[in-house]
Amino acid sequence: MMRKTLLLLAALGIAWGATARQTLEEATDSIRQIYARAQAGNPADQNEVGGWYYRGRHVPQNFQTAAQYWAKAAQSGNALAIGNMALCYQTGNGVSAPDSLRATMLYLRSIREGNTALFDVQKRAAREGNVFSAALVAQCYADGIGTAKNLDSAIEYYTIAAEKGSVLSQRRLGLALFNRRQNERAFEWFERAADAGDVNSVFMVGRMYLQGRGTARNASRGVDFLLRAAREGHANAMLMLADCYIDGDGVTRNPSQGIDWLRRAAGKGLAKADWQLAKCEMNGTGTPVNYALATYYFSQAIPQNYSGTFTRLITDTIADSPYVKYLRGRKAYSRHDFDQAMELFKEVERTNRAEGQLMQGVILANSNYSRHNLDKGIKLIRKAAESDPQAMYVLASLHEQGRGVDQNMPRTVELYTASANAGYGPAMCALADMYFEGRGVDQDYTLAVKYYTEARDSGQLTPSAAHRLADCYQHGWGGLQPDADEAKALNEADFSSHIDTLMQLI
User: Fold this and answer.
1) Model-level pTM greater than 0.85?
2) 360 with 346: CB under 8 angstroms?
3) What is the DSSP letter of 58?
4) How far is CA 345 from the centre of its chain?
């Protein structure tokens, strides 16, 4: 261990020698000049002085001060200092606690920035059986950091770490073998990592049982593992599990349960889930046909490399369908071409779609329409609201505002609730806002959090709703544990709609 430490310190540019008793006052002019340049902000000298404090050379040993100097130099891009900060996080010296993940990322960055000596040191340590070093070297070979990409060498070093119990290396070894089509060995390592609780490996075991790769196909066993992973928030497990429920593979067929898992996967930002969910909403697979939700989920998938797929779908497969006419009607409406929109929505209505009724009502209620007729518009919206969640939402909004109908807050809540329970995200957010503000209802943060969370989990959280849910996490409202990190993530995430992008493809 001492030999490894010496080698590592040398690679990191930390002088290892005697003279802890020598003070700066007793040091040579050159030593004092290094210290002065460090104080003036020179990164190389900051790294050097950090090494003094780490070792107790020229100055009293102080890991925290060492870390402070190295952090400053690292911010300037000094590769040696970046590696030194990695050492701090690996050992816990000078920082609040050891953090192997952060240490790994910093070591990789240091090597990537040109500290190739560090790679050689870690490689020697790995050959001597050091688990951390073996995992690090394997990743370098896998990603081509500080060396040429070499999957064989990555497998060799992952194996060293995996056999000594590194769960992360067991999973990465499994993936490397899986990509090499060495499925039996891959399955064995995924099983070991899954037994240790690695959720990604739990998913892979479930997937391989379903596909019969590396083991005999056992769909029900596969579903068991997928359920484990999905319940821990694994998006791809949710997606695959949805297919199982929709198709009845390994589980009793239950398309509505499949849709529920698709919505959860979409809530994790998985584009494929958005795409599949959009088609289900369009066709009524496992859920009532809902053109508004289909449009929303298509729009969320499009920025994630699905624009070409969407264009082919509406031009080749469903070109003359009621849904495409609905989309064209919405595009015409957005351009204020109300006459064309009315004709298209009448065609949609003729196919017994309430969406056509709703949109005709919206156009008639629009004061800019040449044949504006508010009473007739409201009548059509009411009729559509008997079955359509979007129409329920629109009618609720009118009751909330007292526009064309009596202002009626109990009726507003009733309609928003019905729409939300039918899976319509804007209604979830609107209802949550009412409980958050105490507008028309008693203020109830618990109910606000409930509906905000449902909108988020189905991938339909709006930007304003995201900020309010962030406030709930920040302050611990609604039964939530205060969580500043979750609040920050919600405030920084992009929850904007991409309907305009979709409409450009129509």
Assistant:
1) no
2) yes
3) S
4) 37
Maximum Cα interatomic distance, the chain, rounded to a whole number of Å: 95
SS3 labels along 445-494:
HHHHHHHHHHHHHCCCCCHHHHHHHHHHHHHCHHHCCCCHHHHHHHHHCC
**Taking a C-beta distance cutoff of 8 angstroms, is the pair 382, 372 a contact?**
no
- Which two structure tokens, joined as six digits, stand for 37? 């340049």
* Domain at 1-128: CATH architecture: Alpha Horseshoe (1.25)
Question: What are the structure tokens assigned to 439, written together?
Answer: 């507008």
Domain ranges of the chain: 1-128
Query: How many other CB atoms are there within 10 angstroms of residue 21's CB atom?
Result: 9
Using the CB atoms, write b or e for 79-91: b if 16+ within 10 Å.
Answer: bbbbbbbbbbbbe
The DSSP secondary structure of 203-247, one letter per residue, reads HHHHHHHHHTSSS---HHHHHHHHHHHHHTT-HHHHHHHHHHHHH
Residue 442, token pair as written in the block: 């008693």
Cα distances from 230 to residues 13, 246, 329, in angstroms, run 46, 16, 38
Mind listing the pLDDT tens digit for each residue in 379-422?
A: 999 999 999 999 999 999 999 999 999 999 999 999 999 999 99
Joined together, the tokens standing for residue 89 give 């996080």
Which ranges of 385-444 would DSSP assign to H, the alpha helix? 389-401, 409-421, 425-437
Region 21-43: what's the mean pLDDT?
Answer: 78
Residues near 105 by beta carbon (within 8 Å), at least 6 away in sequence: 86
* 3-state DSSP of 239-291: HHHHHHHHHCCCCCCCHHHHHHHHHHHHHCCCHHHHHHHHHHHHHCCCCCCCH
Tell me the per-residue pLDDT of 100-146, one tens digit each, with 9 for 90 and over: 899 999 999 999 998 889 999 999 999 988 999 999 999 999 999 99
